[in-house]
């Protein structure tokens, strides 16, 4: 091999070594006493960190020229942390990744105002989490983010949020108080399924246009007229946009109740059951419309006269 070729080979080998060393450094996960981190993302906890009951997630590691800015808590970073009771996330953190606190024993989470995104299932199965306050910078929350947080009682979501995600609070069996911002337009499928302690949906702002399927299924505590009113309004509007909503409208607010009333009249031996059912339900539907518009309406006076007719004798 000529000297020129040998020199070229040595230079190439040196470059390759530098590339491999650089790549290895890039892949190496760094750590301090408590946290593991890589490329600006908290990836987990050290053995010592796993023992701690309180943590403050820093937004910067190191000092001076070697300091590294942290902007994200990574996927499953604090999953299954059994000792952790309280965590404070420092200002500067913008993202909490999918499943970041899945099945953690954490009771208190203090979120920063810098936070912009919470991933899917981020806090799912945090069985001891009692309350959460989500600041206005958050524009994205993933599906099922707080599913099965069975101790969760209070939720506050500040302005800037427009859609309640699918299943976000499903199976939060102790959820009692929810604050949503004006401007929310949609509630996703199953958002509040099996929230037994919810007693009404007065927390829904007037801007809500769409309520997804099964959003409040299993919420046995909800018995208020306001819920029924909003349900009727939503179905009435959405039947023109969505075939599934039209089917629900017909089942619960038009054909379904009419057919049920007609069948019951037939069983009771009422004469002209179809005609009388149409008259009765027409009046009821009109009464619902008045109530939904804020007009005081007593169905009792109409019913007294209606059932006194000849067909009911």
Adjacency order of strands in the biggest sheet: 1-2-3-7-9-11-13
Order of helices and strands: HEEEEEEEEEEEEEEEEEEHHHHH
Major beta sheet summary: 7 strands, mixed
Overall mean pLDDT? 82
Q: So what's the overall shape?
A: elongated
> With helices defined by DSSP (H or I, 4 residues minimum), what is the helix count?
6
Please compute the radius of gyration using only Cα atoms.
29 Å
Strand % is: 15-25%
Task: Give the proportion of residues in helices.
Answer: 25-40%
* Coarse structural class: alpha/beta
How far apart, in Å, are the first and last alpha carbons?
A: 117 Å
Poorly predicted runs of 5 or more residues: 6-27
Total number of beta strands: 18
Structure description:
The protein is of the alpha/beta class and 313 residues long. 29% of the residues lie in helices and 16% in strands. The chain has helices at 3-27, 225-238, 243-253, 255-268, 273-292, 299-306, and strands at 30-31, 35-38, 41-45, 54-57, 60-61, 68-69, 72-73, 86-89, 95-96, 108-110, 117-118, 131-134, 140-141, 154-157, 163-164, 177-179, 186-187, 210-211. The strands form five sheets. A seven-stranded mixed sheet has the order 1-2-3-7-9-11-13, with no helix packed on it. The chain has a three-stranded parallel sheet with strand order 4-8-10, with no helix packed on it. It has a three-stranded parallel sheet with strand order 12-14-16, with no helix packed on it. Strand 1 (30-31) and strand 2 form a beta hairpin. Helix 3 (243-253) packs parallel to helix 4 (255-268) and helix 5 packs antiparallel against helix 6 (299-306).
């Amino acid at each position: 091999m000529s000297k020129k070729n040998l020199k070229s080979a040595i230079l190439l080998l040196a470059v390759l070594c530098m590339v491999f060393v650089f790549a290895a450094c890039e892949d190496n996960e760094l750590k301090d006493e408590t946290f593991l981190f890589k490329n600006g993302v908290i990836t987990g906890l050290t053995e010592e960190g796993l023992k701690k009951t309180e943590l403050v997630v820093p937004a910067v590691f190191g000092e001076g020229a070697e300091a590294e800015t942290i902007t994200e808590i990574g996927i499953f970073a604090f999953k299954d942390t059994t000792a952790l009771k309280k965590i404070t996330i420092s200002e500067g953190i913008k993202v909490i990744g999918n499943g970041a606190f899945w099945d953690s024993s954490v009771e208190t989470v203090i979120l920063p105002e810098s936070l912009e995104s919470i991933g899917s299932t981020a806090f799912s199965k945090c069985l001891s989490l009692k309350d959460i306050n989500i600041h206005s910078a958050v524009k994205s929350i993933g599906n099922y983010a707080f599913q099965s947080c069975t101790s969760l009682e209070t939720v506050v979501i500040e302005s800037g949020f427009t859609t309640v995600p699918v299943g976000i609070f499903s199976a939060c069996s102790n959820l009692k108080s929810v604050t949503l911002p004006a401007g929310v337009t949609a509630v996703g499928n199953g958002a509040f399924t099996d929230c037994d302690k919810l007693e009404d949906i007065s927390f829904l702002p007037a801007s809500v246009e769409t309520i997804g399927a099964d959003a409040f299924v299993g919420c046995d505590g909800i018995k208020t007229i306001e819920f029924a009113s909003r349900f009727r309004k939503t179905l009435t509007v959405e039947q023109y946009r969505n075939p599934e909503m039209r089917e629900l409208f017909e089942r619960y607010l038009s054909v379904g109740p009419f057919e049920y009333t007609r069948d019951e009249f037939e069983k009771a031996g009422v004469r002209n059951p179809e005609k009388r059912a149409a008259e009765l339900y027409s009046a009821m539907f009109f009464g619902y419309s008045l109530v939904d518009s804020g007009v005081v309406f007593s169905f009792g006076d109409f019913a007294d006269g209606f059932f006194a007719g000849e067909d009911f004798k």
